[in-house]
């Protein structure tokens, strides 16, 4: 019960701020008599969500599938790359600048190339999400591995510990908080990356639904998509946070103290 009270107290300010923002928005639209195609009221957006719900599940599922598959692929590739870069200082110095440079290329410019190379199926969308979520994870894990406690490493080695034992008992546990920091960042990017990839070429997905709503000046439907994208991103972020608490209970307990 005490934990529930603490959780409520921690999220209460954010909930109150959101409610106040929506109330001000609703009142402002009503007072200035703003046209719905310019800025719909929150109440109209909610009504539109219910009225068009029968059209949305297919689009929601496609975007969610692209985001999840791309996120998982990005995590796997990022972990492998992080371990390789950590293993060799030469590789780290050689490839780290290339990784940094890759992030200067707009994803909207890469997506058409992936469509040309891999077609209009789900694969190019998954690759776009993986490219976006890959970088924060690999950078975070490399930083975590490189900042491991040297005294603990020497202690384990003095007791006859192998490289694998040092990695599993000292270095990787130390890198876990860094890993989940990167995962939280990647989780917030994954849904947005999936939507952007759908703009280039797709038959279903929230990105396609958004383009159709925008082209018909259905601003209320545009806001419905914005709400759904935000909710999916928050849900994936929450899943990552919960997984972090399960895998790092010691960190959560120390923060509570």
From TrEMBL:
What highest taxon heads this organism's lineage? Answer: Bacteria
Mainly resides where? membrane
> What InterPro entries does the entry give?
MetI-like, MetI-like_sf
Please state what the protein is called. Answer: ABC transporter permease
Gene Ontology CC terms, in alphabetical order: plasma membrane
Its Gene Ontology biological processes?
transmembrane transport
Q: Which family does it belong to?
A: Belongs to the binding-protein-dependent transport system permease family.
Q: List, for all copies, the residue spans of the domain called ABC transmembrane type-1.
A: 60-244
Q: Which Pfam families match?
A: BPD_transp_1
Q: List all membrane-crossing ranges.
A: 12-32, 67-87, 99-120, 126-145, 189-211, 223-247
Where, per UniProt, does this protein localize?
A: Cell membrane
């Amino acid at each position: 019960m005490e934990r529930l009270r603490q959780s409520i107290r921690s999220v209460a300010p954010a909930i109150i701020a959101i409610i106040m923002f929506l109330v001000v928005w609703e009142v402002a639209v009503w007072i200035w008599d703003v046209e719905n195609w310019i800025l719909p009221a929150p109440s109209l957006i909610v009504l539109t969500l219910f009225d068009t719900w029968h059209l949305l599940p297919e689009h929601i599922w496609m975007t969610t599938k692209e985001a999840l598959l791309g996120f998982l692929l990005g995590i796997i590739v990022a972990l492998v790359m992080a371990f390789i870069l950590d293993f060799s200082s030469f590789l780290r110095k050689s490839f780290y600048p290339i990784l940094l440079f890759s992030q200067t290329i707009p994803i909207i410019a890469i997506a058409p190339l992936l469509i040309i190379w891999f077609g209009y199926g789900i694969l190019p969308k998954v690759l776009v999400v993986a490219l976006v979520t890959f970088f924060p994870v690999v950078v975070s894990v490399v930083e975590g591995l490189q900042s491991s406690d040297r005294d603990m490493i020497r202690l384990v080695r003095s007791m006859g510990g192998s490289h694998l034992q040092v990695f599993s008992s000292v270095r990787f546990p130390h890198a876990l908080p860094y890993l989940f920091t990167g995962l939280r960042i990647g989780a917030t990017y994954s849904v947005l990356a999936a939507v952007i990839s759908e703009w280039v070429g797709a038959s279903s997905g929230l990105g396609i639904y958004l383009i159709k709503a925008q082209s018909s000046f259905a601003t209320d439907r545009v806001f419905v998509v914005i709400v759904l994208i935000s909710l999916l991103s928050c849900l994936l972020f929450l899943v990552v946070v919960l997984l972090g608490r399960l895998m790092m209970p010691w960190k959560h307990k120390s923060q509570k103290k």
